[in-house]
Specification:
- It is a single chain.
- By secondary structure, the protein is α/β, with parallel strands linked by helices.
- The protein has helices at residues 10-21, 33-40, 51-61, 70-73, 98-108, 127-138, 158-163, 175-184, 186-189, 201-232, 236-244, 265-278, 284-307, 335-344, 357-363, 373-377, 397-403, 418-423, and strands spanning 2-6, 25-29, 64-67, 79-82, 115-119, 144-148, 168-171, 196-199, 315-319, 348-352, 368-369, 382-385, 408-411, 427-429.
- Helix 10 packs parallel to helix 13 (284-307).
- 46% of the residues are buried.
Length: 439
C-alpha cells in the first residue's frame, strides 16, 4: 500500500519506518526542511534504539522516503496519517490542535481518489469528526473517510511496541475504511495473538487518553504509598511486588520514583481533565493525579537537600536527566524541576546523561556537563540518581566512594539495595525505604 505520514516527530518517524518495514511504500512529510534534509542523509533527529538501522534499511529498499512537499505524497496515498504534535495549549492546558487542523486543511487540497485520513496524533474526543468537517468543507466532492488509530509506543522500546503490540485500536465509521486499516496492519492480522479493537472514532480517541491517565494514576498511587512506607518502616519494593502479583492489578508501572514525565502523560492527563470538565463530567481522580505529580517533583528536590544537610555551597553530582532511560527526551522530565530547585538552594550541579545532555543543555544552561558518570562524581559532595540508565546500575561502588568528598547517594530510582550500600560504606537514601547509614 502507499502511505503518507504527515509529521516526522517521534510517532510519525517510528510509525513510518515500521509501516515501510511491513512492506508498504511510505513517504514521510514535514515542514521542517532542516529535519527532512538530515533524514535524507540518514541522520536521525531523535534517539530511539534500533531506529537508525530500521530507517536506513527501508530507505535503501526504496520503501521509505522523506519530503517537505505534501503534494507529492498525498495524491497517490491510500492512507494519510496525521502524526503532528498536540502540545498543551498555553493558558488552559487543553490540547493544542492547530497543527492537526492545519494538516487536515492542506491534505484536503491534495486528495485524489479514495483515501483514508487517519488521526495518529493523540487528540481529544471529537477531533476526528472535526478533521472530517474541515476536509469536507474544502473538498465537498472528495472521496475519503477519517479514521482514528492512536499509538501506544513507549519511548525506548517503540519499534518493538509497533511490531508486537498489545493491541491495535481503530475507530472507523464504515467497512471500507476498516478494510484499508486491516490491509495496513496485515502482518499483525496474520498473528492471531494481536488483538484488534474496531470501534467508533470517539471511543478510539478516548481509549488513548484513558490508557495514559490510568498508567499515570498507577505511578502516582505507588509514589504516595512509598511516602507511607518511609514513615512506617515498610519497604516499597516488597509492597509493590505484593500488590503487583494480584492479577487484577499487575506489576507494571508500580515502580516508585520522582514522578512521571515525558511527551505523553503530563499533557494527556491535563487535556483529559480539561475535556472532562467541558463535558460536565469532571474527573477528580485524574485532577488529583496531575496535582500530586507536580508536587512530587518538588518534594524530591527537598529530599535531596535534606539528605545533603543543605546544598548551599556544595556540588551535587546528578546521574541521568531524561525522563526515562533509552531516550533523549527531556519533555516534562523531573530533572527540569529538581535541578533548578537545587540550584536555587545554592548547589552547583555537575551532571551526566548518556543521551540527553545536548537537549538538556538548552533547557538548563547553568549545569556543568560531564563526559562520564565518574567525571560527574569527581569531587562532588554527594550524588543523586534521577534516571535509571543501565550503566548506572553497575557502577564500581569503590570507585564512586573514592571520587566523592562524602559517600552519600540519593537514589530516586531504587536501583541499589540499602544493604549493599550500607556494606559499601555509603549513606544511602532511596524512595519508600528506610535510609541507611554506613556499616
Amino acid at each position: 500500500m502507499r502511505v503518507a505520514m504527515i509529521g516526522t516527530g517521534y510517532v510519525g518517524l517510528v510509525s513510518g519506518a515500521c509501516f515501510s518495514n511491513f512492506g508498504h511504500d511510505v513517504i514521510c512529510v514535514d515542514k521542517d526542511a532542516g529535519k527532512i534534509a538530515r533524514l535524507q542523509k540518514g541522520e536521525i533527529p531523535i534517539y530511539e534504539p534500533g531506529l537508525e538501522s530500521l530507517v536506513a534499511d527501508n530507505v535503501k529498499s526504496g520503501r521509505l522516503s522523506f519530503t517537505t512537499d505534501l503534494t507529492t505524497a498525498v495524491p497517490d496515498a491510500e492512507a494519510v496519517f496525521i502524526a503532528v504534535g498536540t502540545p498543551s495549549r498555553r493558558g488552559d492546558g487543553f490540547a493544542d490542535l492547530s497543527y492537526v487542523f492545519d494538516a487536515a486543511a492542506e491534505i484536503a487540497g491534495c486528495l485524489k481518489g479514495y483515501t483514508v485520513v487517519v488521526t495518529k496524533s493523540t487528540v481529544p474526543v471529537g477531533t476526528s469528526k472535526k478533521v472530517e468537517d474541515i476536509i469536507r468543507t474544502r473538498r465537498a466532492t472528495a472521496e475519503f473517510d477519517v479514521a482514528s488509530n492512536p499509538e501506544f509506543l513507549r519511548e525506548g522500546s517503540a519499534i518493538e511496541d509497533f511490531q508486537r503490540p498489545d493491541r491495535i485500536v481503530v475507530g472507523a465509521e464504515n467497512d471500507r475504511a476498516r478494510n484499508v486499516m486491516r490491509a495496513l496492519y496485515r502482518p499483525l492480522f496474520l498473528n492471531d495473538k494481536t488483538p484488534f479493537v474496531f470501534t467508533s472514532r470517539e471511543s478510539s480517541e478516548l481509549i488513548k487518553y484513558a490508557s495514559n491517565a490510568f498508567l499515570a494514576m498507577k505511578i502516582t498511587f505507588i509514589n504516595e504509598i512509598a511516602d507511607i512506607c518511609e514513615q512506617s518502616g515498610a519497604d516499597i519494593q516488597d509492597v509493590s511486588r505484593g500488590i503487583g502479583l494480584d492479577g487484577r492489578i499487575g506489576s507494571k508501572f508500580l515502580n516508585s520514583g520522582p514522578g512521571y514525565g515525558g511527551s505523553c502523560f503530563p499533557k494527556d492527563t491535563l487535556a483529559l481533565v480539561r475535556q472532562a470538565s467541558e463535558f460536565g463530567a469532571p474527573s477528580k481522580i485524574v485532577e488529583s493525579v496531575v496535582e500530586v505529580n507536580a508536587n512530587r517533583k518538588k518534594r524530591m528536590a527537598d529530599k535531596i537537600i535534606k539528605a545533603f544537610g543543605g546544598v548551599k555551597g556544595k556540588t551535587v553530582a546528578i546521574l541521568g536527566v531524561t525522563f526515562k532511560p533509552n531516550t533523549d527526551d527531556m519533555r516534562d522530565s523531573p530533572s527540569l524541576d529538581i535541578i533548578p530547585a537545587l540550584q536555587a538552594a545554592g548547589a552547583t550541579i555537575r551532571a551526566f546523561d548518556p543521551e540527553g545532555m545536548q537537549e538538556a543543555g538548552k533547557l538548563m544552561p547553568n549545569v556543568k556537563w560531564a563526559s562520564s558518570a565518574y567525571e560527574a562524581l569527581t569531587g562532588a559532595d554527594g550524588v543523586a540518581i534521577l534516571t535509571e540508565w543501565n550503566e548506572f546500575r553497575a557502577l564500581n561502588l569503590d570507585r564512586v566512594k573514592s571520587l566523592l568528598k562524602r559517600p552519600l547517594m540519593v537514589d530516586l530510582r531504587n536501583i541499589y539495595t540499602p544493604r549493599e550500600m550500607s556494606e559499601g560504606g555509603f549513606e544511602y537514601h532511596s524512595v519508600g525505604r528506610t535510609p541507611v547509614a554506613p556499616a
